[in-house]
Structures are given as structure tokens and as C-alpha cells.
Amino acid sequence: MKIIIALAMLLPAIVFADINVPDTAPPLPPKADYPPGVAEDLQAKGYHVSEIKNDIFWITNGDYHVMAVKTRKGVMIVDAPEPLPFFPPMDVLGAVAEIAPGYPITHMIYSHAHSDHIGGAGLIKDAFPNVKIIAHKKTKRLLEKMNDPKRPVPTRTFEKTTKVSSGGKRLKLHYYGNTHMPGNIFIHAPKEKVLMLVDVVFPGWVPFRRLALSDHIDGWIKAHNTVLDFDFDTLIAGHVTRLGTRADVELQLEYVQDIIDSIGGIMEDPNTLFNAVAAYDSVHGPGAAFETNAKWALFSGFFDASTMACSEVLDAKYTEGANSGDNPKALAGAEAFNFSNCEAYFVARRLGVVQVD
Ligand SMILES: [Zn+2]
Q1: What single DSSP character describes residue 188?
Q2: Given its phi and psi angles, is residue 134 left (phi above 0), alpha (psi -120 to 50 degrees) or beta?
Q3: Neighbours of ion ligand 1 (CB under 5 A)
Q4: How many CB atoms lie within 10 A of CB 116?
Q5: What's the pLDDT tens digit per position in 70-98?
Q6: Ligand 1 centroid – CA 113 distance (Å)
Q7: How large is the angle between the packed helices 217-229 and 334-350, nearest 10 degrees?
């Protein structure tokens, strides 16, 4: 509470600083909205919990997602998001008590090490000290270094694939390399056809800033096809307003392919650089772009012009018609992150760290 009050006092100063706010808030495409009942639950208790299929549950605070599996012995969960200012509290313990009153959390799986997704794990371990914590071995190595009491170190790790079974239910965990950060894993309930993969696909929304802040863009892009190789109907994606489907993965793959095609074309077009030179010279005089003091400014102009051209392609395709809800490809948040998503790919391509067919 103290933190929220302190931030609220700072708010006027923050709002009137350098935040770039659009003149009009763009409409939310209908398919990006909360499913029925979710908004009401968030209002009433800060979280929503519902059964996806056969004792597999979705818990959300409207921004972050947790998977919970009810077994004969208790509940297995995947992730425990960190309580953050302004976000509704993710009361995972309260949600689990709704799913299986009186039963313990027996297993806690970490999708990856990022603190926003597992920074509430310490609270789970405090409540259930015997909880088994399972993660990829790279996640364990990182958490050992971080020594963060909010993210207890895993008690069990794996390298490529493993099974986690309890009380008649089974999850399979898979690792296919760095798809967002080292140790980011796929969590699959094969029988129920539910898949969880965090920070790759954002159902109904464009990917979060700079392609989900992924530190390996090539692996992040390839993860889309790996997802589609799984047998699943429901995707728990870790973020935003709802669960996902195969169609959401396919649409985001199309979005990513548009970035690849757009940036690819721009990089092969010398006019982008010529235009940046001309723009600089038009302000500072002929030849000014090649003066020593213009080096960074020229590159900044070149990066921005390239990124803006890509962003305009995305804006036209993924926001058009959103107002009337008749564009099946409309994605929420395009105005916020199209530019930075283009820039992330542009930089990766420029540095030669993405595979080009
Ligand atoms: Zn992450």
C-alpha cells in the first residue's frame, strides 16, 4: 500500500515528463478483450480462475497468466507472477484455494527466470515449504547467481525433456534452446491438448516491445513454428487478456513475417540511407551528413527511417478496420509497439544474428 501511495504522489511528475501519449486512445479490437466474466472477477477479487479442460485451470490478473493442474494430491502450478504496483494482485494462493480447497501446491514449474513471471514464487514456498520446484537447468544456474528470495532455486532440473507427474495428472516439459531467454520452456499437457509457452505469442495483441524483449530474436522467431508442431488447442501464453489458439500463433507468425519482409526490402534498398543523408543535409547544409560530428545523428536517422517504413506497413495491416471490428487481422497495442518491434528485428538483421533464407 505504501508503495502505491508513493507512486501515486510521483504520478503527476511522471505523466507530464517525456511520455509520448497518443492524442486518441485507439479502439480495442473485439478479439483482444477479456472473455466473458473475466473483467467482473478482476474487479471483485483481482484475479480470475477458470477451468480450461479436465482439471487444467487458467489463473489471470488480466495481464499475467498461470497454469494450474488439479491432481488427487493437490495442485501443480506453472509460474507465480511478482506483485507489481498498479497491477491487480495475482493471488495465486487464493485462486488455488478455489480450485482445490484445503489441498497443497505440490509442484511449481518455472516457465523461465524473469522475475515478473516468477517473482511471487517465494510466497508460494513460504505457504508450502515442501513444494517441488522444477525448471530448466539454465534457469537454476541463473537463479543461483541472482540469490533472490522472491525466486527460490529449483529443486529439480532437466536438459531437453522431462515429465512431471502427480496424482493422476502429467505434464511434459521441453526445451528447444533460447526462444526468449536461456531456459524458456514449453509446458505441455498432451492428453488435454493445452500448451504453455511464455513471452513468445501474445493472443489478440502485437508482441510486447522489442519482440517481447527477447535476447535472441532468431530463436524467438523460430519458436512460432515449434509451437505449431505441438498438438494443442489452447495456448497459455503468459500475457494479456485471454488464452490463445493455433490461429493466434499463425496470425502472429504472419505479423513477424511482415516485419522480416519489410526490413529485408528496406535493407536492400540504398535509397533508405540516401534519404537519411538528404534529410540531414537539408537541415544542416550540403555535405553536412559526412562531417565527423554527424556520424551518430546520420545513423540515428537511418535507423529511424528504416524502422518507420516497416512500422507503417504494420500499422496499415494490423490496425485498419479495428474501429469497426471488421478487420480479422486487427491486433491490440499496434500503435504502442509496431515501431519498436520493427527496430528489434532491424538491429538483429543488421548485426547478422538472424537467419535469412
Ligand atoms: Zn520474460
Answers
A1: E
A2: beta
A3: 114, 199
A4: 17
A5: 999 999 999 999 988 877 778 999 999 99
A6: 7
A7: 110
What is the 115 CA–ligand 1 centroid distance (Å)?
8
- Distance, in Å, from the CA atom of 295 to the CA atom of 86, rounded to the nearest integer, reads 41
Residue 5 C-alpha to ligand 1 middle, in angstroms?
27
Cα(214) to centroid of ligand 1, in Å?
7
Task: Kindly give the distance from the C-alpha atom of residue 223 to the centroid of ligand 1, in angstroms, as a whole number.
Answer: 14
HEC letters along 98-150: HHCCCCCEEEEECCCCCHHHHCCHHHHHHHCCCCEEEEEHHHHHHHHHHCCCC
Contacts 24+ apart (CB under 8 A), 264-270: 264/349, 264/356, 266/306, 266/309, 266/310, 266/346, 267/306, 267/346, 267/349, 267/350
CA atoms within 13 A on the CB side of 21: 9
CA 138 to centroid of ligand 1, rounded, Å: 14
C-alpha grid cell, residue 206: 502485437
pTM reported for the whole predicted model: 0.91
